[in-house]
User: Fold Aminotransferase from Limnothrix redekei LRLZ20PSL1.
Amino acid sequence: MKLAARVGQVTPSITLAITAKAKAMKASGLDVCSFSAGEPDFPTPAHVVAAAQKALDEGKTRYGPAAGEPALRQAIAQKLNRDNRLPYEPEQVIVTNGGKHALYGLMMAMIEAGDEVIIPAPYWLSYPEMVVLAGGKPVIVPTTEETGYKITPEQLRSVITPRTKLLVMNSPSNPTGKVYSPDEIRAIAQVVIEADIAVVSDEIYEKILYDGAEHLSIAAVEGMFDRTLVCNGFAKAYSMTGWRVGYLAGPHALINAVATIQGHATSNVCTFAQFGAVAALEESQDCVAEMLAAFTKRRSVMLERIRALPGITCSEPEGAFYLFPNIAQLGLGSIEFCQRLLEEFQVATIPGLPFGSDANFRLSYATDLDTILRGMDRLDKFVASLQ
Assistant:
């Protein structure tokens, strides 16, 4: 059976592949310290689970609207108004099967053959693949540790062409943990407005901020609301990764187009899961603060250990739950580094290459302190073996 040519244009997610390998090694009896998956280790908050269970008990298990349950679309619109100063109406929100599905639906609805999509590197590894699947051309813009792994207005201006359709922004960033300051967001917005292009703002980590870092949605900048698509979800802030509930907010026409595509692709998101998401937004946010406190401690411990390693540098993340150390001085590419670390010392991490930087690797500290301490001991031994 012949496969479509588009399949050969994209690569499988290396994050999922390494996570699966680490799980297989664990299942075989090996003690693996895994820092690979971007998944909080906390249980989903009890009130969220209770709301979904109540929906089940009430028989809310049938098909629902393709764009999402009205109660959830309303709750999301209220959240965006309250937390982000974005005056969305419920009809400008679509509920999707996770934030990833929101981004994919957007690309399919917006990108045509030959359209250029600007993606600052390092980037979440699925962004370019989605653009390719939609027939577009990813335009990768390398950034450096010196600029905080952020695209500058000058860089952005230099790569915009008549074919440019969209800029992808991700703050806080996966994999770097960097956060664009409000002034940096406004400066990028000015270039976007001058060039008359659109932006998708991936804000999935907006609740996970450290040391006074401030999240400003680029959609809130004057002149940006009607040219911005805001992507978010419940996986990271509420430890709901397996629930697969995300959302996209934007202009009516674009949201309607994504809803049409979703109606033919997946129909509605799991009905009772959506009622759990309503509870996540409308009830106590103490769970978010508790998880953030734990992430803050873990970040401090892991960062201190990483920075003590010879030949490795690491900037401090301001958000999310990742470190993105630079290993250029060690003389290994990121794939060889991570493969050897997993096979020789049973520590699972993600190479930087699929994120757009072969000089780095990614670690998630969304795991317990004991695992972090044991894993850092092993990483110390591995780096020593390379000297």
Remarks:
- The CA atoms of residues 74 and 384 lie 54 Å apart.
